[in-house]
Amino acid sequence: MTRRVAVSGSVLAGFTALAVLCTLSVWVSPLARLPGEPGVGAFDPYNSAWWLNWTPFAVTHGLNPFTSNYLNYPTGMNMMWNNGMPVLGVLLWPITATGGAVLTDNVITTASFALSAFFAYFAIRRYIPARFAALVGGLIYGFSPYMFAQGAVHAQQIAYAMTIPLAFLLVDEALIRQRMRPWLLGLLIAALGIVQFFILEEYFLTELIAAAVLTLILALSRRDQIRLRLPYAVRAVGTAAIVVGAALAYPVVAVQLHGPARVVGNVRDPQVWVTDLLNLVVPTSTQLVAPHWATAVTQHFSGNLAEWDGYLGIGLLAVAAGTIARCWRQPVVRAAGVFAGLMTLLSLGPYLHVGGTQLPIPLPWWIPAHMRYIDNIQPNRLMVFAFLGLAFVVAFALSVAWRQRHGLMRAGVMAGLVVVPLTPQLPLPWQQVSVPAYFTSAAVREIPKNAVVYTVPCPCGYLPDALAWQMASGMRFKLIGAANAPGASAVGQDYLAEISLTLASHGRSFPPLSEAQRAAIVAEMRASHVSAVVLGPTPSPTAVADLTTLLGAAPEVQHGVDVWVLTPT
Description:
2 domains, 5-stranded mixed beta sheet, two-stranded antiparallel ribbon, elongated
């Protein structure tokens, strides 16, 4: 037992070291760097950090953690549509309180790589005892092209990925082993499900789909066992469903479906966010081995780089296909192989995409793509389940090769064929989180507590700086704008958004305003209850003069920003 714990600890330590290597770019300055490149999904890591900060702030101030008007004032935000990870916000509260939400986001990203690989290793060893084989399987899953593409901008996606192998173990217990008391297993399934829901609801739904697919595969392959095993499975799953339904009733019904700032229509177009067929064999720029011709092809895929996460590589496909063909009679190979194939097929979306061109060939995802709420799932993200299934298949192949003559050499060559093409371009891209000293100084107190602030740049466009400023101030003020966030946008702020975009993004002077235009802008500020205007660093050389003309007063220059505290009218 002691040796087993020591070995498991060594495996976890190894995966953690590799995870730190992958994220070393942010650990150079973990309080002031986030994953992502400016302009390439830059807003998403800021959003993630903001919600991690919001949960403890809301709890300690008696506010509803599921909604907030501290962004997108006055309409506000609905966390149930915005991937807020409240469960991690609570669990990692001490880190946020000590080092800030940027640090917490970096901890989540790094830990997700390590724990995803470790939990996959642990799950694989249930069926394939060979440690080397399970290690490689853990690498395939925890450091897959899916994880690296999503990890560059989406902490939520890879945080959820670390729970999927645990869910597999519970499904295995419910359908195959059935050793635990069904009510206890039901409670464990419910507990994990609730945690998963409050990490990323989208994946909670996709996991239900994945579990249904795996159950169908097992039922068809073991039809003679259905009558024997069905009563236990029904009791366990039924218990879980009751508990989960009771726990999620309020956030889903009261907040998501009937709460403020809820989404009407699609969040994402399921015909855009798909796995391109060529992505299965053509690497993107996130891979270490990515020739120019390959990246030239991938640039035509729909979506963006963070969602081009379906690269399997010819080596992995060859090993998996050969193993499935030769070892079809092995239940673990058959179930894992078929599961990976079906999840890959579903990830292709409602219509086949080849090289960025959508062909008029409908695929199985066409059905869920036309179902309300389910149509908000991005099918390309189903590839995370395919990688887990393929990790099992490759691990089985390595365990067989290990037992053959010259087993170490055979297994090493096979592992190299699979892993080398999947090796990511290290480390993750990063972006600087810049906070002028004003927001951490006593000077910020001149802004009344809970006042509404119009910042330039404001988060009305894809410029997230103000979110970091607000967090650094201790959430002292509320903000106009919240771009790239699902939900109802605040109305009557068009001029404010245009001013910010012109000065902060384009770096131009604002054109001369007529008295009518100036009055309309001032009216927008009054209607939005703006109490202060804060101008941060911008590329526009005339920004101070433009805002001074607009506001009719000179600013106070303090600690790197220009501030106008408006007189109430």
